[in-house]
Amino acid sequence: MPQSQDPTVVQTGTKLVETLKGAFHTPAGYRPVHAKGLLLTGTFTPTPLASRLSIAPHFNNPSTPIIGRFSNNTGIPKIPDTDDNANPAGFALRFVYGDRKHTDIISHAVPLFPVKTGQEMLEFLGSLGDGTIGQFLATHEKTKKFVEYPKPHPERFDTQRYYALNAFKLVDGDGKVTVVRYQIHPFLGEELFLQNEQVKSKSENYLFDQFKDTITGGETVKFRLMVQVGQDGDPTNDITNQWPDDRKIKDLGVIEFNGLSQHDEEEQKNIIFDPIPRVKGVEPSDDPLLEMRASVYLTSGKERRAAPHVEKEKANGVDGLDGQADGAAEIH
Ligand code: HEM
After folding, report:
1. Domain segments of the chain: what residues?
2. Which of 20, 55, 199, 248 could form a disulfide with 281 if both were Cys (CB 3.0 to 4.6 A apart)?
C-alpha cells in the first residue's frame, strides 16, 4: 500500500489522524476511529454475475479466503457496545488471493457520510472541537443529514447492512466498466435492531461476545456482498451524493466467517485496510476521497504498528480510556 505522491494529501491526512486521536484521546497502538474491533476469518464465494462483471480473482475463483474486522465507532478502545457513540459499526473486509496479495472493502452501518473531502472533515472536526458545530451544520446540509440519521443498536453485527459508499468500477474481460457502490447485507435479508429498553439489558460486549460464541460454537456468520449499480450520469466523485433508490441492487456472492484470529490483538494492531482496491478488475472511481483515505489509513496504521505493544491493563480502562470523547462522537 504505497503512500500518496501528493504532499497536500499527505499533509491533510496527517492532520486528520492527529485531530481524531486528540478528539478521542486514543492511546498509542489503537485506531483513532473504530478502535474496538474483532477479526474473523472465512471464505467468499462469488455468484456467476460477479465473474461476468469483473476479472478480479475473488470474483472468479470458486472461493477466496477472507479476513473481516468488525468494529465500534470512535477511537475509544473499550467503548461499550451499548454506548450510542459506538454506532455506526464498521466492517472491513479483505479478500486474500496470494501471498501479500489482497484487496479490501471498507464499510460502515449507515448509508450516508458527513463530508465530501478530507479538508471538509478537518473543518467538521474543528467545529466540534471549538463549539461552532451549530453553525457548521446550518451551512452543511449533508453533514446535518448524517448527524441526524438514526443509528440504532443492532441485535447482532450480522443483522444490519453496511455501506462502502465510495463508487468503484468493476471491469470485465472486454474492458467494459460497471460503476457500483458496494453494500453488505444480512444473509437472510432482514435487518434487526434493538429498542432503547432492550439495549439497557445488554452487556457491554454483547455484539463481540455474540460473534465469538457463534464461531466457537461451530456455527458460521454469513452476509451477502451486493452492489448498487450506477447508471450513466450518476455522480461517482462525491460520497455525499447518493444515487436514486431505484438503482438495481445485485448479488455478488456470499461472505461466510467460520474462524477467529489466533492472535487477535496483535493482528488487529498490524493489519491496515486499504480504501483503494489495487487489483485488476476493480478500479477506484474518480472520487478524490479515496486517495485521501488511503493516505490517512496508511499514516495511522504505521503509527499504530510502531507503538509499543498494546498494554492490556491500559486498554481495560485504567488510563481513562472508558471516558467519553470530546463531543466528537458523530464523526464517522
Ligand atoms: C474523510 C474521510 C475519512 C477519514 C478521515 C477516515 C479516517 C479513518 C482512520 C484514521 C481510520 C483508522 C485507520 C487505521 O489506523 O488503520 C479509519 C478506519 C476506518 N474507517 Fe474511516 N475515514 C474516512 C472515511 C470513511 C468512510 C467513508 C467509511 C465507511 C464507508 C469509513 C469506515 C472506516 C472503518 C470501518 C474503519 C476501520 C477499519 C479497520 O477495521 O481497520 N471511513 N478511518
Report:
1. 7-112+149-318
2. 55
At 201, list the grid cell.
439489558
DSSP 3-state of 253:
strand
Q: Are 119 and 8 in contact (CB under 8 A)?
A: no
- pLDDT at 81 > cutoff 70: yes
pLDDT-based confidence at residue 167 (cuts at 50, 70, 90): very high
Which residue from 26, 33, 73, 115 has its CB within 8 A of the most atoms of ligand 1, so it is best to mutate? 33
CB 94 within 8 A of CB 44: no
User: Does any ligand 1 atom lie closer than 6 A to the CB of residue 116?
Assistant: no
Triad 283, 287, 291: Cα angle to 5°:
75
- For ligand 1, the distance from its centroid to the CA atom of residue 297, given in whole angstroms, is 7
Dihedral sign for Cα 80, 328, 118, 304, please.
negative
For the question of whether the overall pTM of this predicted structure is more than 0.90, the answer is yes
* Percent of the chain residues topping a pLDDT of 70: 93
Cell 460477479 -> residue: 50
Contacts of 298 (CB under 8 A, 6+ apart): 1, 3, 272, 274
Question: What average pLDDT score do residues 180-201 get?
Answer: 96
Strand (E) or helix (H) holding 198? helix 196-200
Degrees, nearest 5: CA angle 4-8-9: 40
Beta-bridge partner residues of 76: none
**Please, what is the average pLDDT of the chain?**
93
Residues 45-61 have pLDDT tens digits of 999 999 999 999 999 99
* pLDDT of 322: 37
Q: Is the CB of 121 under 6 A from ligand 1?
A: yes
CB 281 within 8 A of CB 2: no
Cα separation of 142 and 160, whole Å? 22
For 127-154, the pLDDT digits (tens) are 999 999 999 999 999 999 999 999 999 9
DSSP summary character for residue 70: E
Q: Is the CB of 118 under 6 A from ligand 1?
A: yes
